[in-house]
Specification:
This protein has 339 residues and is of the alpha+beta class. The chain folds into 2 domains: 172 residues, HIT-like (HIT family, subunit A, 2-Layer Sandwich), CATH 3.30.428; 163 residues, 2-Layer Sandwich (HIT family, subunit A), CATH 3.30.428. It is built from 6 helices and 13 strands. The strands form 2 sheets. The protein has a 10-stranded antiparallel beta sheet with strand order 3-4-6-8-7-12-13-11-10-9, with helices on both faces. Strands 2-1-5 form a 3-stranded antiparallel beta sheet, with no helix packed on it.
């Protein structure tokens, strides 16, 4: 069964998940895009996935039995609480059963689309589905934190081409999440304000890219990858569960615009989306601010990154922001204005 193991010399946990070897992969990359008839997420293949835990509608697919659906992952990295343990449950501070929830959100019934080919209304429905799953999972006693993520393309770790994202609801708080909480708290104690609220309030910053009424897009000061972009809501909410529909709409619209500008600047590019929502032990604290981190995969993790935990980024965030603001992709809606 999957196990959580803590590294001896750091506070990091590693998820050992043998079930994941069953995913459709070869040599670390996915095979050529699966035909619709072979895809377990398609409408034409009922019964190829576990029963859904939730289904959602969208104005883009009014005649489909579902537009977005949440499924238990067929190859889970976590087993549901109460699952039968098939290996000894040894008492160790460095190991525990990997019990939690691992779900897939199939984001469209259409096998051939990506986010850039979906409407802002449909992507708002996707974010609403994310919100509903976070709301459901965050009240469960056995869940301590959530990592919701999207891998688009083989270089970003996707094992199926059909558009989807994933949620891992964990029984512990990963070290990186705890570190983020500590920094939010320290900034609040030092200034009395929120670090991300201050970032998006500085409209003269060279790292501001786009702004809407309820969210803003910016490149972080110490970006980990060329053209890394964060979408930050203007309202100070710790959890995605608390976001308004207007915030979800603007977040979807900005994310879509950034993806299209990436495409104009970089060509077709694989990417990861990472939702940062408050770990549940800190849900009543005032300092955390949820946000969406977007990272194009223009390079590879190699020896320096693995050995040091640092990344090498050849494009400064100020340069990336300027290029994104001036992108040749001209579809700026009336509510978007470069900062």
């Amino acid at each position: 069964m999957p196990r959580l193991r803590k590294r001896l010399l750091t506070e990091e946990w590693v998820l050992i998940a043998p079930e994941r070897t069953g995913r459709p992969r070869r040599l670390g990359l996915v095979d050529a895009p699966a035909a619709e008839g072979d895809c377990p997420f398609c409408l034409s293949n009922p019964g190829h996935t576990p029963d859904p835990v939730a289904e959602f509608s969208s104005p883009d697919f009014p005649d489909s039995p579902w537009a977005i659906r949440a499924l238990p992952n067929k190859f889970p990295a976590l087993l549901p609480p109460g699952a039968s343990l098939t290996s000894p449950d040894r008492s160790s501070p460095f190991e525990q059963p990997a019990l939690g929830y691992h779900e897939v959100l199939v984001e469209s019934p259409d096998h051939h689309v990506t986010w850039t080919e979906l409407s802002e209304d449909h992507l708002t429905s996707v974010l609403r589905a994310w919100q509903c799953r976070v709301s459901d999972l965050q009240v469960r006693d056995e869940v301590a934190s959530i990592q919701l993520f999207k891998n688009q393309g083989p270089r970003a770790g996707a094992s199926l081409p059909h558009v989807h994202s994933q949620i891992a609801a964990l029984p512990l708080i990963p070290a990186r999440h705890l570190d983020e909480v500590r920094h939010f708290r320290a900034y609040r104690e030092e200034t009395g304000r929120c670090a991300l609220c201050d970032l998006i309030a500085d409209t003269e910053s060279p790292r501001q890219v786009l702004a809407a009424d309820h969210a803003a897009a910016l490149t972080p000061f110490a970006s980990r990858a060329p053209f890394e972009t964060w979408i930050v809501p203007t309202s100070h909410d710790g959890s995605l569960a608390d976001a308004s529909l207007s915030t979800l709409r603007d977040t979807a619209a900005l994310a879509l615009e950034i993806l299209r500008r990436w495409h104009a600047l970089l060509g077709p590019v694989d990417y990861n989306l990472l939702l940062h929502t408050v770990p549940f032990a800190f849900i009543d604290e005032p300092y955390y601010h949820w946000h969406l981190e977007m990272l194009p995969r223009t390079g590879q993790i190699a020896g320096f990154e693995l050995g040091s935990g640092m990344t090498i980024n050849p494009v400064a965030s100020e340069t990336a922001a300027e290029l994104l603001r001036e992108s040749n992709h001209q579809r700026k809606a009336s509510w978007i204005s470069p900062s």
